[in-house]
Specification:
alpha/beta; globular; binds adenosine-5'-triphosphate; binds magnesium ion
Length: 307
């Protein structure tokens, strides 16, 4: 990242990761190992990393201020969706991007396999329960997209979910995309800024990270044979991601494909896109009425005249 980015340069840089609504996503056109423009790469990895860190820090400061404004103005909320293959760095991204924000106004919800109680409802039901309140930033660590990703890759999950019998072909999945778009449209209309990130890690980098977990006893707890099993479905997942993202990147809830092989690049981009998104809401601190100002003046007088 350059030392200082003008707003227009920044917009140009960040826009390249957005999936334009209606455009078909081809993941082969997105380099998971992207590390800056050719000009930047010439400076070498260490310099790019140092600049990325400075840019990240500046963004995190802005994010903390933006969050306070979000909280104070109490008209909007923010929903961040994180989706990725295992070991892409969802947890680390959450940890880094959320440093400095006030925990009172921020919540992370991680979604696992649905319970039988959850499966007894429509597929969006469990997400409805936890959408952010006004003033709040909520991060979905996995999300309603699992219902068109893991469930698409493993049709037996769908069969076990208790739906009425019917065909599960293309139009079934198209129906789910439409439901998701309608759900997100409703949230957006009600004041929720929705930003969705696909952390795009390469197959080779995932292997390297799995091996690192096996090499280091302190990282053994992070290794799961289930993750290795899912790796066997790599191509099916890529296809499911391509299709889901193409069908659900909308003006009101855009997807960003974030290069994830270099963690510093990934975290920096997510923080920058989130900060920019909140800034664009153009929020204002609530103004105090003339009556309110008079009450404040009276309060000052009262405090100052205390013995
Ligand atoms: P970490 O491993 O870093 O703790 P994780 O998000 O991988 O984070 P896990 O408990 O390992 O958490 O995995 C959660 C599992 O739940 C994933 O395999 C995911 O695909 C699955 N899951 C999430 N939502 C659904 C869903 N709607 N239907 C079926 N499976 C789901
Ligand atoms: Mg896992």
């Amino acid at each position: 990242m350059p030392k200082r980015l003008g707003r227009m340069d920044e917009d140009k840089l960040l826009d390249r990761f957005e999936v334009a609504p209606g455009k078909r996503l081809h993941l082969k056109d997105h380099d998971p190992g992207w590390m800056g423009t050719p000009d930047l790469r010439r400076l070498g990895r260490d310099e790019v990393k140092a600049r990325a860190h400075r840019y990240l820090e500046a963004n995190l400061e802005q994010l903390a201020q933006a969050q306070e404004l979000l909280w104070a103005s109490d008209t909007h909320s923010v929903l961040v969706v994180l989706q990725a293959m295992d070991a892409a760095g969802k947890d680390g991204t959450i940890k880094h991007v959320m440093t400095g924000v006030n925990p009172q106004g921020c919540r992370v919800v991680s979604f696992k396999k649905p319970s039988t109680h959850e499966l007894d409802h429509n597929f969006l039901w469990r997400y409805w329960q936890v959408v952010p309140e006004r003033g709040q930033i909520c991060i979905f660590n996995r999300s309603h997209y699992e219902d068109v990703l893991v469930v698409r890759v493993h049709p037996e999950l769908l069969e076990a979910s208790g739906l009425p019998p019917g065909k599960r072909g293309k139009s079934f999945w198209k129906g789910r995309y439409e439901d998701i778009n309608a759900f997100e449209r409703h949230l957006a209309r009600s004041g929720t800024l929705i930003l969705k990130f696909f952390l795009n890690v390469s197959r080779a980098e995932q292997k390297r990270r799995f091996l690192a977990r096996l090499d280091d006893p302190d990282k053994h707890w992070k290794f799961s044979t289930a993750d290795l099993h899912e790796r066997g479905y790599w191509d099916q997942y890529q296809k499911a991601f391509e299709e889901a993202i193409s069908a659900t990147s909308t003006k009101w809830a855009p997807w960003f494909v974030i290069p994830a092989d270099h963690k510093f690049v990934m975290r920096t981009l997510v923080a920058a896109i989130l900060t920019r998104g909140i800034r664009r809401l153009d929020l204002r601190y609530p103004t105090v009425s003339a009556e309110g100002l008079a009450a404040l003046k009276q309060a000052r007088h009262q405090l100052e005249s205390e013995k």
